[in-house]
Design brief:
Blueprint lengths: L1 E4 L7 H10 L3 E6 L2 H9 L3 E4 L5 H7 L5 E4 L10 H18 L4 E5 L13 H12 L5 E7 L1 E2 L7 H7 L2 E3 L8 E4 L1 H14 L5 E6 L2 E3 L1 H11 L7 E3 L2 H10 L4 H15 L5 H5 L9 H14 L2
Parallel strand pairs: 1-2, 1-4, 2-3, 4-5, 5-6, 6-10, 7-9, 8-12
Antiparallel strand pairs: 9-11
Length: 297
């Protein structure tokens, strides 16, 4: 079988590509930098170097594929986040159609059921809708929960202000969490089996914790003073991200997403369609967090 995997050597795409290669299949990995793909090339993957914003490139890269794994990579240089996501999504759709590909596994997110009001996930909702318009193509949408990896972003707050926090939390609702390795494992399972038909969705989560508990576990693992989880206002969140140099389109998007989490809208469909939790729990991720915390300035 021939697989095409987008996302380069990212936190999900790299272990996914390695698993599919180990299973004995042909893998082409799409990325923007040859040097980052070299470790996968050394393991037998083919590299397709180019931009997912280039429809002609994608059409050629998808040639001959039996199945593809799709994700919309971040691009922090764009002025309109959702427009960029839709551009990439349409390029994917055109390449799938041109190459008569029958199986697609696509990375979306918890919150995509909203359609609007979930910040960067709104563009993924558009992506899902475009994929579900495809006729005679079997599509499996993956909707992972909040990435544990994103909690690394709390380290500067912990070191500079002795707090963790965001414009969500403190409501009593647990935050559904997932490790990127668990997402890669689910994607590999779906791609190697290819036993999904029609259009379907699958939620992925490994743990569910209150934000106060997250702060307690991570600060204990980092062997530092226990820090509280502080809930910021939307205005504080927006201005804080802009002060770090994040462009307004992204600061607004993340603030909107946090608001949707705080109001219970982001995870609403997740709780209705609750998945079996995967293997990696917060305590295991906390070991990785401690290493990052203690090695940062």
């Amino acid at each position: 079988m021939k697989y095409v995997i987008t996302g380069g050597a990212g936190h999900i795409s790299r272990p996914l590509a390695e698993t599919v290669l180990t299973a004995g299949h042909e893998v082409t990995v799409i990325g923007r930098a040859a040097e980052k793909l070299q470790p996968l090339a050394d393991k037998g993957a083919k590299s397709a170097i180019g931009s997912v914003e280039d429809g002609s490139f994608l059409n050629a890269a998808f040639s001959g594929a039996d199945a593809v794994y799709l994700m919309i990579p971040p691009n922090y240089s764009v002025e309109n986040w959702r427009h960029y996501q839709n551009t990439v999504a349409r390029n994917y759709i055109a390449a799938i159609t041109s190459n008569n590909i029958k199986h697609v596994v696509a990375l979306s997110s918890v919150g995509a059921h909203m359609g609007n009001g979930a910040g960067p996930v709104d563009g993924l909702a558009d992506f899902e809708a475009l994929l579900f318009q495809l006729k005679e193509v079997n599509v499996k949408i993956l909707r992972p929960s909040y990435f544990m990896y994103n909690l690394f972003g709390m380290i500067p707050l912990m070191k500079q202000m002795n707090i963790m926090g965001a414009n969500f939390g403190g409501t009593g609702e647990k935050l559904a969490l997932v490790h990127t390795n668990d997402i890669a494992a689910v994607a590999a399972e779906e791609l190697l089996a290819l036993n999904f038909t029609g259009h379907s969705k699958r939620y992925i989560a490994g743990d569910e914790r209150a934000t106060d508990e997250i702060a307690q576990i991570l600060s204990a693992a980092a062997n530092t003073t226990a820090v509280p989880w502080v809930v910021f206002s939307d205005e504080e969140s927006l201005e804080g991200m802009k002060q770090t140099g994040l462009a307004e389109t992204f600061a607004e998007g993340f603030t909107t997403m946090g608001k949707a989490i705080r109001e219970g809208k982001m995870q609403e469909d997740y709780w209705v369609n609750h998945p079996t939790l995967s293997s990696i729990k917060l305590e295991e991720f906390a070991k990785e967090f401690a290493i990052a915390f203690n090695s940062s300035n």
